[in-house]
Every structure is written in structure tokens, then in C-alpha cells.
Write a structure and sequence with these properties.
Layout lengths: L1 E2 L9 E4 L9 H16 L3 E6 L11 H11 L5 E6 L4 H14 L2 E4 L3 H6 L3 E2 L2 E2 L17 E4 L5 E6 L3 E6 H4 L3 E4 L7 H11 L4 E5 L6 H10 L6 E5 L2 E2 L20 H11 L11 H11 L10 E2 L2
Parallel strand pairs: 1-9, 2-3, 3-4, 12-13, 14-15
Antiparallel strand pairs: 5-8, 6-7, 8-11, 9-10
Helix pairs in contact: 1-8, 3-6, 6-7
InterPro entries: Glu-Q_tRNA(Asp)_Synthase, Glu/Gln-tRNA-synth, Glu/Gln-tRNA-synth_Ib_cat-dom, GluQ/Sye, Rossmann-like_a/b/a_fold
Family: Belongs to the class-I aminoacyl-tRNA synthetase family. GluQ subfamily.
Pfam family, one: tRNA-synt_1c
């Protein structure tokens, strides 16, 4: 069984890492608020990273709009503002390390071929390991994958409790460099969290299913242990995660106090009526924030 090691006592450093595939909506704002307050509660730092590694899905101008919205809501971040599009060399070095270690290999399989294997897992189709021992003659590698085994990779989430996966049977060897030439989220997020010295990962519960893969990769790259906390998922009336794909409306920075009050209330922290403007709401929130009051979710937003 592979279980994360105890986390050393280090100065708290967390982050918010939006993807500019759309504007901030109620779900992303709520995650930002929770991660920010958890960092402040521990007297720690809160960094900002723009995860802009998927150009075909990005909305023109979204990155700048996200920054303006965060500033309008009174967020203050520490450290250097990082854009993933500036960090390709780090990702290439990490992949080279994994290949040299024998942990990563080239894969020629198409999505159609993987789907034909018919193995449904925890997060889509399970890769059947077709290219584990080499690409078939006459074919060329299209992507790069990380080898996993079927031991239990588990951890304790500070809000959601115990969670784990048998990666080989539930996920399969997973992609590090995609067939279209773009870096996979799993690789980029782990490389950046290690490089930036993140100690505490606070994010939305939609990413809970990705965490065992990231812990496995972190171990292969020699990264230190971290804690995780997955905040409640915001869903619409149909039970779908709020996102650009589900037509979640962008938050209105002109109504920052109203939006911030709603986000706090969703996180189990209903501010008093006398906390009226943004500054007063933040002060009340910093004074009263307790993770134990946050519901695990999901939370329906009409």
C-alpha cells in the first residue's frame, strides 16, 4: 500500500490556480475564498498560478479578466504570479527525469483503441497497458505515460476524509505529454507545486479523483509530502459541476460584496448583516474561519 508520508511542519504555503478557459464563476470564487482563508488562518502565504497550458480551450482575455476580478474582490497574493506557459522547460526536464528512471514510456494508442478495451475506471477509460513494453512495430509514440502499479495510493483529506485508488486497475498508466503536444494537467500541476514549495493544496472536490495520480507522480519526482483539502463542489440544479461547459454565469465584480457574502455562506460561514462591504466581510471571515464548519458538499447553486 502506498500512503502519503506525514507532512513535515513547514511554513504554510497554498495557492489558487485558475484555468483561463472561462471567467470566474460562483464555483471558482468559492474555491478561491476557501483556499485564501485557510492560508490566512494558518498565518501562511497564498500564491496565484495561471494554468494556461491548453490553448485550444482558453478564452481570449480570460486570464487578465480573472486577475481583475480577484483584485476587485480584495484578494492579495504572495510570491510571483506564475503563468504555466512560461514553464515548458521545467516540464521537459521532469519528463526527461522520469524517462531516465524508467518510469515513463512512449505510447502509440489512440483514444478509440483505449475505449475499445472497454475498461471503465475512476476517471474515464482505464489504459490497458498496450505500450508498456514498447510500441508495436510500424507505429510511433503519440504520447508519454507514467507507469503505475496496483498498490493502494491513499491519503487523508482534511475535509473529505480518507481517499485512495488502486491506480493500475482504476486509472492505468496515465498521460504526461498528450498526443497533441500539450503537457498534461497531472504533470504540470505536480511539477509547479514542487517547484513553488507548496505545502498545502486546497482546491475543489472535482480534483479529488486526480490526487492519487499526483501523489504517485510527486513520489517519482522526489517531491516532499503535502496536505490536501478538497472544498465542496458547486453544482447546478441538474447536479452538474459549475463550469463554462454547463453555462455557469460569470461573477459580477460590481456586486463583489454580495458575491463574497454568498461564497462565505456556501462554505458554512454566514456573515452578520453588519459586515456590509468587502473589507468588513474579509475581516469577519479571517477572524471566524474554521475548516470544521465547511460542508463536504456538493452544494447546489440555483
Amino acid at each position: 500500500m502506498s500512503v502519503t508520508a506525514p507532512v513535515p511542519v513547514l511554513p504554510y504555503r497554498g495557492r489558487f490556480a485558475p484555468s483561463p478557459t472561462g471567467l470566474l464563476h460562483a464555483g471558482s470564487l468559492t474555491t478561491a475564498v476557501g483556499s485564501y482563508l485557510e492560508a490566512k488562518r494558518h498565518g501562511g502565504e497564498w500564491w496565484l498560478r495561471m494554468e494556461d497550458l491548453d490553448p485550444p480551450r482558453e478564452m481570449p482575455g480570460a486570464a487578465d479578466a480573472i486577475l481583475r476580478t480577484l483584485q476587485a474582490f480584495g484578494f492579495e497574493w504572495d510570491g510571483e504570479l506564475v503563468y504555466q506557459h512560461d514553464r515548458h522547460e521545467r516540464y521537459r526536464a521532469a519528463l526527461a527525469q522520469l524517462v531516465a528512471q524508467g518510469d515513463a514510456y512512449g505510447c502509440a494508442c489512440t483514444r478509440k483503441e483505449i475505449a475499445a478495451a472497454g475498461q471503465h475506471g475512476a476517471d474515464g477509460m482505464v489504459y490497458p497497458g498496450t505500450c508498456r513494453h514498447g510500441v508495436a512495430p510500424g507505429r510511433s509514440a503519440r504520447a508519454w505515460r507514467l507507469r503505475v502499479d496496483d498498490s493502494l495510493t491513499a491519503f487523508h483529506d482534511r475535509l473529505q476524509g480518507e481517499y485512495g485508488q488502486h491506480l493500475q486497475s482504476e486509472i492505468g498508466d496515465f498521460v504526461l505529454l498528450r498526443a497533441d503536444g500539450f503537457w498534461a494537467y497531472q504533470l504540470a500541476v505536480v511539477v509547479d507545486d514542487i517547484a513553488q514549495g507548496m505545502t498545502d493544496i486546497v482546491r475543489g472536490a472535482d480534483l479529488l479523483v486526480s490526487t492519487p495520480r499526483q501523489l504517485w507522480l510527486r513520489q517519482k519526482l522526489g517531491g516532499p509530502a503535502v496536505t490536501h483539502c478538497h472544498l465542496p463542489l458547486m453544482v447546478n440544479a441538474a447536479g452538474e459541476k459549475l463550469s463554462k461547459q454547463t453555462l455557469a454565469p460569470a461573477i459580477d465584480a460590481r456586486a463583489a460584496a454580495i458575491e463574497l457574502r454568498q461564497a462565505l455562506t456556501r462554505l458554512g460561514h454566514a456573515p452578520p448583516t453588519e459586515a456590509g462591504d468587502v473589507a468588513e466581510l474579509w475581516q469577519w471571515a479571517r477572524d471566524n474561519w474554521q475548516l470544521a464548519r465547511v460542508p463536504p458538499g456538493p452544494i447546489v447553486i440555483a
